[in-house]
Amino acid sequence: xxxxxxxxxxxxxxxxxxxxxxxxxxxxxxxxxxxxxxxxxxxxxxxxxxxxxxxxxxxxxxxxxxxxxxxxxxxxxxxxxxxxxxxxxxxxxxxxxxxxxxxxxxxxxxxxxxxxxxxxxxxxxxxxxxxxxxxxxxxxxxxxxxxxxxxxxxxxxxxxxxxxxxxxxxxxxxxxxxxxxxxxxxxxxxxxxxxxxxxxxxxxxxxxxxxxxxxxxxxxxxxxxxxxxxxxxxxxxxxxxxxxxxxxxxxxxxxxxxxxxxxxxxxxxxxxxxxxxxxxxxxxxxxxxxxxxxxxxxxxxxxxxxxxxxxxxxxxxxxxxxxxxxxxxxxxxxxxxxxxxxxxxxxxxxxxxxxxxxxxxxxxxxxxxxxxxxxxxxxxxxxxxxxxxxxxxxxxxxxxxxxxxxxxxxxxxxxxxxxxxxxxx
Length: 425
Ligand code: GDP
Ligand code: IMO
Ligand code: MG
Known about the structure:
- The chain is α/β, with parallel strands linked by helices.
- The chain is built from twelve helices and 20 strands.
- The model has no long low-confidence stretch (mean pLDDT 96).
- Residues 12-13, 39-41, 299 line the site of magnesium ion.
């Protein structure tokens, strides 16, 4: 058996959580491989809605392994809140959830360092989620991080050494006032550590490979999106992990030849939260219409998401980097009320049109659009591909032709049920 991977092809929030939940019945195990509580994955099942930050989106199905892999960074405070928010659903989390001993811990001071770093950057800030992601991965790469497996070995000593170093940075480098904040967040953090200790910690690389060898099916759930990848995203306005398919190998301990299908998820348009370039962004009432229709407000921070048309230059780039084998198109219904819909097929850079994603998305990059007729039909009630209006079929066909990939799922609403499997010819 191979591991299938599902990942965002844009700037995150493509609807990964929803689709992982929909696909979970086909798999034995669901695993997160990177990112942390910067992620907000929304599931809508019947009449309830749940946002997950750290826990894999397979958790609502019985008898599945849900694994938090080594590539993830975990904040015990957020974890505890997430556990609490799931209590009403009576899920046996201690039976279904496993955490890698190699998962790095987000320390209370990592969050403060995130805030201090953003404040110091002023106008050039990243617009991070302030969850401590950058500083935690910095410590990991700098070989100073604390891992879940460290909790049981000289933890106090190791924790103090890191916290003292961070305090010095906060005080001497950033001149950041932290004392009052630290005592409050530290208390919650240690409560979270106690809850964390009641879970099963595993050598997740062994677990995943054993599952594969036993012919069990594994789905790897990406967080963020390819354009936020630390290497290939719109650097420096990116997150601090490899969000791409290769991240599933390093974030779970699986070999590249063990990767099976690569599902790439995209919205039928584009959004972005935080700072950084966005060639097809709409600053006008059309952008606002997308935001309203798509309820485009961050699942983690509540910030309004920036909105714009679908960008095929970026999408093709993401397909290339990830080796995408199938596409899932989300939120088609958000475009229900548009007479015409634009799609960016090229970038004009200093008078030349290209469909190659450039080194830098600066002000010289101007999107070149084609305009397609809108379907002006309510897609949210549809249950079958046969009911699709012609214009929606054309929209799908256009993207398939441009990318050379089949779209095998069209999502037409936030609910689990509003998911249409497509025949790929
Ligand atoms: P993720 O981070 O990729 O899991 O995506 P988010 O959960 O942050 O954002 C996606 C948002 O769109 C959530 O509020 C979902 O409930 C919602 N959503 C997902 N699919 C659809 C869809 O097909 N149509 C509509 N209207 N909303 C959707
Ligand atoms: P999901 O998994 C959308 C963005 C932040 C910021 C940049 C860096 O829900 O798709 P960070 O806190 O990671 O240092 O912030 O990345 N960002 C996301 N945007 N969806 C996410 O996750 C995101 N996680 C981080 O807004 O621009
Ligand atoms: Mg999200």
